[in-house]
């Protein structure tokens, strides 16, 4: 997984509430599109006009927000479907950090698996950052994961384990494989305690 | 010591290791695979040179990209057939039983899990699909995962999770005629919003939940994710045990007795404390229907379209201040993991019997599984639907998400028994109204959104 340490980049305002993962990436892009190409289909319905030209109204098509790597989002961003392609599509268009009052829970977990940092902040802080990102001549934002701060003084919370994994670019599967003896011991004991769990499909 | 909740009991007995900071390594007892999310994970572990750790704790089926056209043999297009082939081949290589076409166990993952007795009380079950919360209806701890977590489960039979908080929702009173499980849960989402359950594992309780059969309970738990909760559960009771008994993968003999004794200890203790509580009075509920582009945009079918969310109203082509009933519809879809079980088809058939689908409406029934389809046919329900002018199709996800190309045309209006009315969910510019199977059937007959209580 790609490391996340400090990011200084353009932040784009994305104030809609309840942005669902179907909207972030359409289902037909989840069925055969290679991961590396998903970026161009992120927010497809809003981003392009019928006919395929870019919609100039869409925030990330506006010259000042092109190449934004931070999205300041409305409440409950990433609700809905578990499709991880939503995160791959965002990452594919360069987004490395999302800031919102709340996130869809499965989506948020998927972000952490892909080196994308989802920051939860109180609604008032997000509103302030939203205004800042929208203001004419807004500069870039700086997200410092080690210090858990946005733009120097806005602190955010993150679990110690998630933080370490992002900072070091650790892979969860590798970490868990190292715990194999514990998994084996659990199953050994559990086979006695709950024998009906095991081997059910072998009958 | 304070009493413990159903959720706490099931969670705690799956903890392999405490990783600190509220994060724990959990054992996965049951993993359901489908071709769409499953094949990506299978390719990923192959790429990493890893093998599946416990193939005997997984089963697979085909649902998302399969054709649902009568007489189908595969996907709607070559890309889908390729995906199905990869899924079959990787499953075979790993030793995972796949419930393929022609097998009773083929169907929507969340329909077949309980049907096969693969889903049981107290198991920790995951699947690469957000509606995995459905399985909580049996008292399982179940939630949907993305591709990375799915790959993690294939390789390690575990998941690393942060323990959520707990919420209890009590559904009080007896539901009136014409109102059912779908209306109960839609009304709750309307009341507390699509973020109302965020960060919680929700337990549904109360008189109206106890009165539901297992299929109705699955409908309630199915929409937990639309409440913002990854997990929804209902305490197992005598109905649950009766439902599970004798199913294909359910324990038998002495193991059944041992399991049953264990399951009986699972319900929340009387003095268990929840982090949040809600109640909903069901006695006054009307049949529910959504008017906007989020499941929380829901009203009684006898109510007027609210003056809210102008963008959603514009997308839906609705004017505020007018009754929602009487809105003309083009399509009706009875299907999906929310409402495509036998009891759902029976409820719809009761409305349809002896009537005709309005001439301008294209109406489909897509059974949730091959078993549901066969049982419905044995009762003659297919004939009831066909005689009325419905299409009777093959089991799969179909128009719930349209991954297989079953789509609603732009600007067409569809009353659907599925779970998401998002912008574009059923196709670009498609307008979706979520409702119960009975209400969907009523809309098909009337040709417009209609109050099923008048049928
Ligand atoms: S029916 Fe719809 S919600 Fe259910 S598993 Fe299939 S696509 Fe997902």
Unreliable stretches of chain A (pLDDT < 50, length at least 5) are: none
Number of strand segments of chain A: 8
Q: What order do the strands of the largest sheet of chain B run in, or round the barrel if closed?
A: 5-4-3-6-7
Amino-to-carboxy terminus distance of chain B: 53 Å
Number of helices of chain B: 15
Report the radius of gyration of chain B as a whole number of Å. 21 Å
The chain pair forming the largest interface, with residue counts per chain, is:
A-B, 54 and 72 residues
Order of helices and strands of chain A: EEHHEHEHEHEEEHHH
Strand content of chain B: 15-25%
Percent in helix of chain A: 25-40%
Named at the architecture level, the CATH assignment of the largest domain in chain B is 2-Layer Sandwich
At CATH level 3, the topology of the largest domain in chain B is Aconitase, domain 3
CATH superfamily of chain A: Aconitase, domain 4
What is the second-level CATH architecture of chain A? Answer: Alpha-Beta Barrel
Number of domains of chain A: 1
* Quaternary organization: heterodimer
Main sheet overview of chain A: 4 strands, antiparallel
């Amino acid at each position: 997984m790609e490391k996340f340490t400090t990011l200084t980049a353009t932040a784009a305002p994305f104030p809609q509430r309840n942005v669902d993962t179907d909207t972030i990436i359409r289902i037909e892009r989840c069925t055969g599109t290679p991961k590396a190409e998903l970026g161009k289909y992120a927010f497809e319905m809003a981003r392009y006009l019928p006919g395929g030209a870019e919609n100039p109204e869409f925030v990330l098509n506006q010259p000042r927000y092109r190449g934004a790597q931070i999205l300041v989002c409305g409440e409950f961003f990433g609700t809905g479907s578990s499709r991880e392609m939503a995160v791959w599509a965002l990452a594919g268009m360069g987004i490395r950090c999302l800031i919102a009052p709340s996130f869809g829970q499965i989506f948020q977990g998927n972000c952490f698996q892909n080196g994308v940092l989802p920051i939860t902040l109180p609604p008032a802080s997000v509103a302030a950052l939203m205004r800042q990102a929208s203001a004419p001549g807004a500069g870039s934002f700086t997200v410092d994961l080690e210090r858990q701060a946005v733009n120097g003084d806005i602190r955010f919370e993150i679990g110690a384990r998630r933080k370490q994994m992002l900072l070091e670019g650790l892979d969860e599967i590798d970490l868990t494989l190292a715990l194999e003896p514990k998994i084996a011991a659990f199953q050994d004991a559990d086979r006695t305690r709950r024998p009906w769990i095991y081997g059910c499909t072998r009958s | 010591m304070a009493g413990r909740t159903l959720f706490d009991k099931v969670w705690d007995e799956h903890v392999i290791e405490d990783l600190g900071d509220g994060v724990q390594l959990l054992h996965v007892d049951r993993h359901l695979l489908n071709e769409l999310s499953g094949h990506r994970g299978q390719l990923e572990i192959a790429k990493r040179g890893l093998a599946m750790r416990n193939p005997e704790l997984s089963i697979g089926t085909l649902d998302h990209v399969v054709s649902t056209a009568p007489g189908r043999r595969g996907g709607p297009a070559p890309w889908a057939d390729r995906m199905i082939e990869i899924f079959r081949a990787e499953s075979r290589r790993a030793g995972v039983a796949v419930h393929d076409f022609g097998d009773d166990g083929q169907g929507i993952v969340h329909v077949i899990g309980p049907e096969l007795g693969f889903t049981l009380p107290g198991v920790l079950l995951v699947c690469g699909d957000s509606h995995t919360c459905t399985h909580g209806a049996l008292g399982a701890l179940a939630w949907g995962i993305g591709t990375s977590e799915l790959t993690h489960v294939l390789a390690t039979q575990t998941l690393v999770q942060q323990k959520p908080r707990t919420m209890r929702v009590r559904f009080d009173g007896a539901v009136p005629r014409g109102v059912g499980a779908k209306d109960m849960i839609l009304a709750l989402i309307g009341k507390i919003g699509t973020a109302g359950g965020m960060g919680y594992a929700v337990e549904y309780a109360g008189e109206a939940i106890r009165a539901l059969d297992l299929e109705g309970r699955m409908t309630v738990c199915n929409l937990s994710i639309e409440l913002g909760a990854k997990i929804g559960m209902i305490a197992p009771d005598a109905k649950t045990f009766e439902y599970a008994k004798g199913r294909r993968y359910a324990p038998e003999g002495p193991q059944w007795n041992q399991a049953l004794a264990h399951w009986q200890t699972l319900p929340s203790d009387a003095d268990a404390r929840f982090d949040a509580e809600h109640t909903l009075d069901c006695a006054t509920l009307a049949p529910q229907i959504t008017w906007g582009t989020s499941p929380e945009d829901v009203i009684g079918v006898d109510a007027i379209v609210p003056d809210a969310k102008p963008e959603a109203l514009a997308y839906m082509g609705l004017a505020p201040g007018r009754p929602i009933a009487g809105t003309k519809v083009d399509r009706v879809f009875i299907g999906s993991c929310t409402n495509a079980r036998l009891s759902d088809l029976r409820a719809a058939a009761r409305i349809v019997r002896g009537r005709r689908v309005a001439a301008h409406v294209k109406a489909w029934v897509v059974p949730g599984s091959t078993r549901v389809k066969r049982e419905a046919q044995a009762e003659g329900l297919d004939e009831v639907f066909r005689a009325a002018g419905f299409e009777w199709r093959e089991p799969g996800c179909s128009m719930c998400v349209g991954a297989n190309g079953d789509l609603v045309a732009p600007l067409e209006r569809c009353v659907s028994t599925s779970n998401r009315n998002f912008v574009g969910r059923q196709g670009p510019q498609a307008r979706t109204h979520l409702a119960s199977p009975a209400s969907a059937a009523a809309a098909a007959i009337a040709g417009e959104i209609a109050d099923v209580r008048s049928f």
